[in-house]
Design a protein that fits this description.
about 45% helix, alpha+beta, about 160 residues, four-stranded antiparallel sheet, 6 helices, Endonuclease I-creI
Length: about 160
C-alpha cells in the first residue's frame, strides 16, 4: 500500500505518541481450546479521543476500532491491527518516521522475520527452540516498553 509522505509521517507521530506495539503472550490452558503451548501474537494499537482520526487510519490499513468510556464524559477509541502481514507492512512503513518507539518497531519486525510461521501449534508441542525464541522476544519487548525514569531523556538523534 502506497501512502504520501505527509500521511505516513502524521500516522507515525500518532503511533509514537499514542501508540502501543506488542508481542503478546497467552498462556497454555486458557480459552476453549485448552492449548498446550503459549501463543504469541503481535498487535499495534493507536488510542485517541477523536474517532474520525482513527476511522481514517482504519480506512487505509483495516483493523479494528473499539471504544470505551473514560469518566463521565470522555469516550476513548482504540484502533488495532494484529494480522502479522498487515502489522509487518504498517510498522515497516512507519519505521523511518518513528522517534520514540523506533526500538520497539525494529524489535517487532525482527521478531516477525525470525519466528517459524505456523498457524497454530494447538495441541502439538512447539519445539523448545521456537518457544524460547518467542519468549525471548516477548520479554525484550516488555523491557523496551517499561517507562523511563523521569531524568532520562531520549537520545538527541531521535528527536532531531
Amino acid at each position: 500500500m502506497k501512502h504520501d509522505l505527509a500521511t505516513v509521517a502524521y500516522i507515525a507521530g500518532l503511533l509514537d505518541g499514542e501508540g502501543h506495539l506488542a508481542i503478546e503472550r497467552t498462556l497454555p490452558g486458557k480459552g476453549l481450546l485448552r492449548i498446550v503451548n503459549p501463543h504469541y501474537g503481535v498487535r499495534v494499537t493507536i488510542s485517541n479521543t477523536h474517532k474520525p482520526t482513527l476511522e481514517w487510519i482504519q480506512s487505509m490499513w483495516g483493523g479494528r476500532l473499539n471504544s470505551q468510556k473514560i469518566g463521565v464524559r470522555q469516550r476513548h477509541y482504540n484502533w488495532s491491527i494484529s494480522n502479522r502481514h498487515i502489522v509487518t507492512e504498517f510498522v515497516a512503513t512507519m519505521l523511518p518516521h518513528l522517534r520514540i518507539k523506533r526500538d520497539q518497531a525494529e524489535l517487532l519486525l525482527d521478531y516477525l522475520a525470525s519466528i517459524t510461521v505456523k498457524r497454530s501449534y494447538g495441541r502439538a508441542t512447539m519445539p523448545i527452540s521456537e518457544a524460547t525464541l518467542r519468549q525471548d522476544y516477548h520479554e525484550r519487548m516488555l523491557a523496551l516498553r517499561r517507562p523511563q525514569r523521569l531524568n532520562e531523556q531520549p537520545p538527541a538523534e531521535r528527536l532531531g
